[in-house]
Amino acid sequence: MSALLQVLDACGRWSGTTLRLWNQQPDVEVSAALLAGPTPASAWTPSLEHAGSQPTPEGAGWFDRVSETGVWLEVIGHDGDAPPHDLPVILPILNASLKMDREIFRLSDEIGRRYEEIDLLYTISDILGQTLDVSEAARIILQTVSGVVGAERASILGYDAATGLLRPIATKGFPIDRASEVKVDDTESIAARVFRTREPMVGLPHLPIEPHEQQDRLYRSSAYLSVPICFAGARAADRCVGVINLTDREGGAAFSPGQCKLVEAIANQIGAALENARLVAREREQHRLRGELELARQLQLQLLPSPSELLGDATVAVQCQAVESVGGDFYTFTRLGAGRVGVMVGDVSSHGFSAALVMALVLAAAGIHGQASHTPSQALAAIRESLAGKLSSTETYFSVFYGVVDPERRRLLYANAGHPHAFRIPRQGDPERLEASAPPLGLTGDDPIGQASAQWEEGDLLCLWTDGMVDTANEEGERFGEARLLESLATQRHRPPDEIVAEVMRCTDAFSTTRTDDRTLLILRS
Under DSSP, is residue 206 helix (H, G, I), strand (E, B) or coil? Predict the structure, then answer.
């Protein structure tokens, strides 16, 4: 207003008169208000109905309209019915000055609003940067945003991909338990529609509410603004991760386009926060799962016996490697007295936790029935009977070889339930396959489990492995194969078992670094 006063004073000095500006106020008790110029001598206001001369406290004055916006010029003390000769010059100058003054006011107001919005964005960035608790950050953000745009109630809904629901994260103006979960395919829900289209919706107040729209009553009962919360990854397309809703604007007016753009900018920040929180939660969950998998692996390894348990009766070496954290390969061995030792190796048909569970049950059953049974076939039959219900319910089966080495009788007595990877390698001569005497356990019913025997001489090797040893393939698709494995074993038959196992494992690793199955290799010499 100071610039307008300067222009008014300059025009007055140029014309040699005193000037005053009045602002017309229709439909109020006092129809005119002083805008600029000297204050009248008494509580007086002019009648601003038409241009011309009218009496004032300072004598006769001349009144003329400056602009169409209701501003009038008074030439104080003008005595005469004809307008002042310099009005055609003064009026355009004052009109231009008024327009400039109003534009300056408008720009100042716009700058003020923009500053408030920028300050809000910085505030929200600060809030999001100080906490990983998205619910708490969202609650504070809603309070701040609502204050700027004049919303009495608001909510933030986050997308749960596992359930296909928009779930309340924070609310303002009403309890969070009143904010319903929303299905993203709900055709009647405003929030769901905004999520699907990724386009904001601005509603006018006092829209009618249909019965099926009760869940959105908070956003339909008055003016509302619903904006998608999106996240743009560095190498991925934009994804909608939620919706922010505001309603019950102060004064009942609709939300402006500028407020909509502001909330969209805020929604982008919230989207990044929601995505970061999701990634942090996923990382924590993965860390927890890795810890549990490692614990499961350690527990499974503890179920497998140490080769030192047979010291004095036999020398044994074994490596058992799961392709996942836990696996379905297993082995065990038992002292049976009089120098006899029982050795078992098997392979459950699946991988991972389901196979590991069956493997644990097999080892528990083997520990009971291995010593209680008189023969290998009786032991396997007892194991099959004790696990029949579990094998049937999980549709699982396993191959297993169980042999009893009896050095005094120079005999290897064994039962082989569908396990093709069992050989006796004598000190001299070709390897001898220990043929299967029954199908894998769990694959058939109560068929008899056959039993066989082989000669056993001092220095002979019992070599047992699972199919992961021979099925591993190189980049050309060539399998390591049984022949290559037997050749390696036969070549090294005079070395200690632990050296043989280490060298064979090294050879298979050199052949292929890709693992698709659990692998176990056990070598025993008595």
Answer: coil
